[in-house]
Amino acid sequence: MTRFAHITGWGMAAPDRVLTNDDLAKMVDTSDEWILSRTGISERRIAEPGESTATLAVDAALRALESTDINAKDIDLIIVAPEYLFPSTACIVQDQIGATHAGAFDLSAACTGFIYGVNMAAQAIRTGSIENALVIGAETLSRFTNWEDRNTCILFGDGAGAFVLQASDRPGGVLTCVMRSDGSGESLLSLPAGGSKLPATHETVDKKQHTIQMKGREVFRFATRVMASATREAVSLAGWELDDVTWVIPHQANMRIIKTAARGLRMPIEKFVINLSRYGNTSTASIPIATCEALQSGRIQDGDHLVLVGFGGGLTWGALTLEWVIPERKISRSARRRRIILVLLVRIRSFIRRLRRKIEGVIWGTSSSDHL
Ligand code: UT7
User: Fold this and answer.
1) pLDDT digit string (tens) for 320-362?
2) Are residues 342 and 318 part of one domain?
């Protein structure tokens, strides 16, 4: 029997702290007028000290699970965009939500990561190797931003969005995907230091090589080229015409990039889901956050044809087509309450496991680098 991969749960998380264009104008030589007219961004969210990519990812994941009829232990696979080199953010999410049967890994494809991740999860579901997956786009780019560089600090914001994907024999869900890359453009958008090529030194810190470096105009030109071409390819693979598309949910990087893509596709801009004025560019999180908001406001309806399209560092780009099927389910209040209790129990279990390791450490000795 043919298997399909449906999105049955969705959730988002954004820090409460808002940084407006006027706030930025006090930090660097810029203005609300310049930022708004060149990018379409008015404000963005910035993580508080206690927040990180992992905490935002966990919040989005729990909200996505809340709207489904499965529990965290039913999840077979968790894919997240990275926070540390290792351990993976996906493992931290696995522990914090209690997905005791899940494999978990991070996927690094910059802003295109969410599209790559949804496609990987859908393929694993279609082959029959897994039943349920959780894909999360989560970012705290504010921690990698040079707040003295007006070319980049005006663009980025923090947030997370998550999809739960489930196997079904009902046609629809994730249909087609194109994934592309061009490493010859590696220097256009990068975080140069902190890896094997340029490990952290005082010099890399002094030169601000642990912050985002971007050649804005070149990225802009690349983005306007690939958004339309990837959309066309994915739509054609699905056997649709562009007129069949109900909504395009683009990576929220720059309003001018989105408008150029719409013109290139000869599609009305009203078909594009856009919320970048309030969040800025949240990288891998931008597409799921925009999708969640469109679902919450009731814009996306059962049977709608969606295109998710993104681009980013690498260079990477991709587009994915989806036939949106609203899941049939009724989640009782008691089931919701049970889930809240379950999350608390999961946190306690994680604490006990960490404590047990500490006690074992006292008995058997610890390594000098132990920081748990
Ligand atoms: O997820 C992917 C992430 N990256 C992107 O999507 C970035 C894509 N690129 C862009 O969005 C645009 O290139 C930017 C918004 C980054 C820049 O807009 P632009 O229209 O390409 O500006 P520009 O770099 O060509 O700069 C035009 C002028 C320059 O001054 P001069 O040389 O003409 O005197 C810049 O120095 O604007 C100046 N400028 C600014 N002025 C006020 C650059 N940044 C600012 C600023 N405020 N924040």
Assistant:
1) 999 999 877 777 778 778 888 888 888 888 888 888 888 888 8
2) no
Q: Which residues contact 226 (CB under 8 A, 6 or more apart)?
A: 180, 311, 317
Domain of residue 358, residue span: 335-370
50 — pLDDT class (breaks 50, 70, 90): very high
**pLDDT tens, residue by residue, 66-101:** 889 888 999 999 999 765 678 899 999 999 999 999
57 and 14 share a domain? Answer: yes
Q: Domain for residue 240, yes or no?
A: yes
Tell me the pLDDT tens digit for each residue of 263-277: 999 999 999 999 999
User: Quick one: residue 208, left, alpha or beta (phi over 0 = left, psi -120 to 50 = alpha)?
Assistant: left
Q: Whose CA is nearest to atom 6 of ligand 1?
A: 253
Distance, CA of 57 to CA of 166 (rounded, Å):
19
Does residue 39 lie in a domain region? yes
Asked if 244 and 175 touch (Cβ cutoff 8 Å), the reply is no
The answer to whether the CB of 305 falls within 8 A of the CB of 71 is: no
Contact 183, 308 (CB under 8 A): no
Q: Please state the domain count of the chain.
A: 2
- Domain annotation covers residue 22: yes
* Alpha carbon of 120 to ligand 1 centroid (Å): 34
Residue 97 lies in a domain: yes
The one catalytic residue in 21, 132, 251, 254 is 251
Residues 292, 159 share a domain: yes
Q: Which residue has the higher pLDDT, 150 or 354?
A: 150
pLDDT band at 239 (very low <50, low <70, confident <90, very high): very high
Q: Is 275 a catalytic residue?
A: no
Q: Cα(135) to centroid of ligand 1, in Å?
A: 32
Q: Is 6 a catalytic residue?
A: no
